[in-house]
Amino acid sequence: MSFPVPVPPVRRFISAADEVAGRNGVSIRIDHRRGHYFWAVARNLGPAVVALRSGCLAEAEVTARPNVVLQQVQAAVLELSGHGVIEIFCDDENEAQRLRDFGLAVSRHYPPAPAIAAMEELVAARLESLYTNLEIATDASRGNLTRWVGHGWVLDFGGTIAPVLGCKAIEGGSVLEGELRAIRLALAAARATYAGALDGRSAVIVRSDNQDAVRMLAHPGFEPASANLRCISEAKRILDFVRHGHVQFRWVKGHAGDPLNTAADRLAVLARRTKDAHLPPEVAAALRESVTADARNALRRSGVALAA
């Protein structure tokens, strides 16, 4: 009886990981994050990424010009490929099909790992660049007949990032305590919106129309006559909150036409009055949504006017 004798394979075995890593070509990534479309294109030769391109477009612009992202990606691919025949990859099959329909011969193979890593870094850097500057406006409103204090804040990262508006009513506290608490709530909202806001990745300016609150934060140790223990505690909490950040505290004259201050004031008054009036939660939420939309539109109009 004869038994089969092992022989060398006709073709050398190549693992899937090695095969993907050895691919050369141009890779594409298109991401939709935070109301923006980010795209990145990477040209690689084996493990080496030799050329990169990227872009970022606001959602409103893409809505007005639906093919603008595909046009920019196509231009980048042609530039990096040198208008020659080269394999094109995309790490999302839905986007790959859109690119094929647009005229790019996108492969059905997965992009090489070096290109994927490079494109992810590009998109992350583009996203971070939208949050490098932050302007915060805060205000508080204390009722004469109740102990409710309303707090309002506006976060403005500038550029194409939509302003973030918020408000909250809390029972008890002096005017100064309310102003400090509004600043703390705004800083918490900033960190929730962008994790790097208070760790040094953003340059933050906090504007308040209360001079004592600003002085307590800009000059630690200063205690005005109106400051009680709760005010001092709030100031310490805020300073601890921003100890790793690049944060400045500035005074702005209230009710003087400053768009951010006006919006923060409206939100603070709204938060207090909904509590004063004992409105049901659903009515208060609808009113808050309406006032917030009006304030956001006013900020958008003021931004357009300043740009003009």
TrEMBL record:
<feature type="domain" description="RNase H type-1">
    <location>
        <begin position="130"/>
        <end position="273"/>
    </location>
</feature>
<protein>
    <recommendedName>
        <fullName>RNase H type-1 domain-containing protein</fullName>
    </recommendedName>
</protein>
<dbReference type="InterPro" id="IPR012337">
    <property type="entry name" value="RNaseH-like_sf"/>
</dbReference>
<dbReference type="Pfam" id="PF00075">
    <property type="entry name" value="RNase_H"/>
</dbReference>
<dbReference type="InterPro" id="IPR002156">
    <property type="entry name" value="RNaseH_domain"/>
</dbReference>
<dbReference type="InterPro" id="IPR036397">
    <property type="entry name" value="RNaseH_sf"/>
</dbReference>
